[in-house]
Structures are given as structure tokens and as C-alpha cells.
Amino acid sequence: MQRRDEAGVEAAAIAALVSLDGKSVLDVGCGQGRLTRFAAARAASVYAFDPSAENVAAARASLTCEQHSRVRFVVGAAEAIDLPRERFDLVLCGWSL
Amino acid sequence: MHALRNIHAALAPGGLLVDTQPLSPHPSVAADGSELGKLDMREWIDTIRAVDERVVDVMTAGLYEVRHEERLVVSDAFDNGPECLETASSWRETRVPPALGSWLEATDTAVTVEQEVRLRLLRRASSAPG
Prior knowledge:
By secondary structure, chain A is of the alpha/beta class. Chain A has helices at residues 9-17, 34-40, 53-61, 65-68; strands at residues 3-4, 24-28, 45-50, 71-75, 88-94. By secondary structure, chain B is α+β, with helices and mostly antiparallel strands.
């Protein structure tokens, strides 16, 4: 099984740059939830989407019960998805633009 | 709609966007501390250049401003060579050179792929998307 960034280098660099505490976060192209888990552990709410339903299912399954209540998942692509306007404090695009 | 314009509309005024992208045209593949070879991701880098052009477009349009940029090294870990070979072969615009493929097929220990990653922090500017 592929394990991306087990050392958490990317997440640590993001955490050093911006605080996610209490923020509304959009996770673009969430994949299997690597940055979704990072955001869900800190933010007030997370809206995560990916074009692959399989990836979204894996990302959802990777969250703790406590994190589930703060994360909403959607299947869709960044170009086409209907997002709420002026809603998010922070957008994460991890290898996804 | 262009993804960056869609995201701009979703960001609150003054909101931030963190973008990370792998940049290595030839990521190193290693096992037991020794390099087995390099992947060929030159086509992928062409895709990144196209993304960069779109970022320049939206910056020129006044939608975002760059606040910070840095480079990181991120590793993908695999339990063994065949697993790495199967996964890397499925990556977009990535070729596994035949010699590296042979090494991976014969490697039963843990394998890593190291990629240089660019992290950019963009801030939503006030201009409305056109």
C-alpha cells in the first residue's frame, strides 16, 4: 500500500504557515483524505471533494468518529462543483490543481 | 469554470489558498538506502507548467496574490518493489524506465519515492472573477 508523506512534512509546513483552528476549510481533490484528516483534527468544519467516488469513500473511512461530525464529503471536480460563495477561510489543494 | 476562479468565489474575503505540487521531473526511487533509479515524470512537469500559466492568469486578473513559497521533499513509501511498480505505473503522465522496473520487480524490501514539492500560499484578493 502506498503511504504518502508518512513523516507529515507537508502538513507540518502548512501548520507552520497558517492556523486552521476554528476555520472553515475546503479540501480540493481530497484523494484518500491525507490532508482531510489533518484539517479535521484542527478546523471547525471541512468540506472535502474529489472526482473519484472510490477516493471519497476511502477518505471518509479514514476519519475518526469525532472527526466525522465536522467533515462533509462530495464527489465532484474543482471546475464543475457548486460551492457555497465566500464561505471558506482556507482552501487546501494538495497535489490537486 | 476554471478551478481557480471557482475556488476564488468560494473563499471568504482575505481567505487563503495553500497549493502543493510535485515538481521533480525525475523522482528518485530507493531501497535500503540505495537508489534503484529514477521515474520519468517529464510529461507531468509539462502539466504543472500549464497549471502555472493558469495561476499567472488569475494573478494577472487580480484574484490572488502570492504570500509565500517554499520547497519540500516528500516521500512515498511502499512495502516492496512490485507494489511501488504497480502504483507508480498508474500515476498520471509517469513512465517507469525498464531498468528501474526490473529492479523493482526483484526488490522485496521497503521502497521510497522522493519528490520535490512546491508549497505556495496565495491570498484571495478582492477582484471579482470575470
